[in-house]
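Chapter summary example.
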Amino acid sequence: MADGLPHTEVGQHWFEPLADHLGTAYLRYSFTKGTAQEVEYLVGELALAPGMRVLDVGCGPGRHALALAERGIAVHGIDISQTFVDIANSANSPLATFERLDARAMTFDAEFDVVICLCQGAFGLMTANGDDAVVLGSMARALQPGGRLALSAFNGYFAVKYHTGADFDADTGVSHERTEIKNPAGEGQEVSLWTGCYTPRELRLLCATAGLRVDRISSVEPGGYGNDPPSTESAEYLLLATRT
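The structure predicted for these 244 residues follows.
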């Protein structure tokens, strides 16, 4: 495993200083440009409509939450980064609220019709064994019975096959890479990124433990959400599930 794998306590996370450096520059990255298509797909697949309540876990600067709010859907977003929460709140959306909260510390109980966790926004950024299971379980509890979950996860097969610039630990399923990120002024900083990677089978097993029925797992790309069957060729899987 790569040296320096962080095992952070609840309430703090290795991603926080990265988000502080990125700020609004996060929204310059190409993977953020597919928000409209992703939201359009989710609205259709999850039958989202005004009057429903959505929880966005690992909401970042709020791009999905704000797009849903523009459709008349109430959204509450949580993120470990206060910098990202401040950016999201600066939109002053009447239907979207945001707070700094560690996803491992969620205590929501049957409060939401839908929970979304996209672009490795909490799930997948945990490095300690069991933390992703804790996050998934908390998302399931946040749903009303019959509520729906949309969760993206990095494709473990893709990581091994194509992510050659990273070190993949077969024991933990965590990929580690060094990369440069730039702030809004263009100033670079070299950082470590850790991403938990998954197979469809592992996602199904986690869901069964969390009390979630898997409706579909699809191979997707940012800005390319759809119903393609799982494969080794996409960077992400998109899981749709229902609280039983």
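To summarize the output: The mean pLDDT is 93.
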